[in-house]
Amino acid sequence: MDSQNNFAALFKFRPELSGYIGIEREQFLKGDSGIYVPESPRFLSLAMNEKWTYELSACQVESRTNPQTGLAVIKAELLANENVGNRVANQLGLELVNEEVAAEDMPLDVYPNPRYLKIAKVISRDRLRAACRVAGIHIHLGVRDLSHAIEVNNLLVPHLNALCDRGDHSGGERLRLYRDMAQNWQPVVYAGPEHLFEVARANGFADNPRNCWKLIRISIHGTVELRMFGSTNSVDEIIEWISVVKAITKGAL
To answer: Whole-prediction pTM value?
Structure first.
């Protein structure tokens, strides 16, 4: 029981943000010749913006929105982030691009973060390549506590295939690569906190929920996170995805 309690304590739930929505948007960096470039350290150094951060691939950056409830406000933040990102990329002579799957011969440079460097050391070259080549949109749903997170997770899991289809712009290639990289990708309907802990132990994320790579997961940030949506140039399409997710979870959020 102590181990299960320790596991539950790893999640940082914020009840006041229940029902709020946050977006993470991953994008690739390309140079003048259209080649992927591992320039995220330079990009982030110039951006100096808390809404922009790194990903495993040094050829990617990620922008984030603040937790919000209104779709119009989320859209405005996404557009503002887009403007900042394009301005910074232009200053560096780079292009910020929305692609679900990068070319197979892209550089495999990893951002110099200790966790990412450790991951790159222990996984195979093929899995590293798969991880570096994919980008997408992650939707975070704020929840009150672990039981609430399980309730929201369980509402979403039966819609997995439909959500994957809706967010796919690569003929399934992004999700194929994601599954190659994330061997515990399949979401689970949890019977309760005990079942979640059993799955965490079996899938190797009982000590660190960040190591859960399920396409629908309960994140360490105290949210339910949807990771199946691909990349798009259209902010309106992202808002459409959010609307679908809100409709599915209406009874719980």
So the answer is: 0.97
